[in-house]
Amino acid sequence: MAIAPDYIHLGVEHGPKVAIHQVVKALKGRSSRLLRQEFPHLCKLPSLWTRSYFYDSTGKVTTERIEAYIHDPHHD
Questions:
Q1: CA–CA separation, 69 vs 59, rounded Å?
Q2: How far is 1 from 31, CA to CA, in rounded Å?
Q3: C-beta separation of 1 from 8 below 8 A
Q4: What value does the mean pLDDT take over residues 56-74?
Q5: Under DSSP, is residue 16 helix (H, G, I), strand (E, B) or coil?
């Protein structure tokens, strides 16, 4: 995972029977709940996340190469 002021890169590995929209929904839902518990003033906001997301499959790229990309500060 790499965090920037306006986006994050998150490498996620999931099974072939799980749709990517289910993974995104779970991540956004859980993080929203945890953030609102820790920071109650966020409860005033109607939503913490937009409905958009981007994903791409990696094919035959190694996990190490993906992690190197995520942590490289020069790829933006």
A1: 15
A2: 14
A3: yes
A4: 79
A5: coil
Position 65: which residue type? R
Q: Is the pLDDT at 57 greater than 70, yes or no?
A: yes
pLDDT of residue 73: 72
Mean pLDDT of the chain: 85
Q: How far apart are CA 26 and CA 28, in angstroms?
A: 6
Structure tokens at 49: 């996340």
pTM: 0.68
Helix (H), strand (E) at residue 29: helix 20-38
DSSP string, 41-65: GGGGSS-SS-S-------TT--HHH
Mean pLDDT score, 20-45: 94
Assess contact for 75 and 69: CB atoms under 8 A.
yes
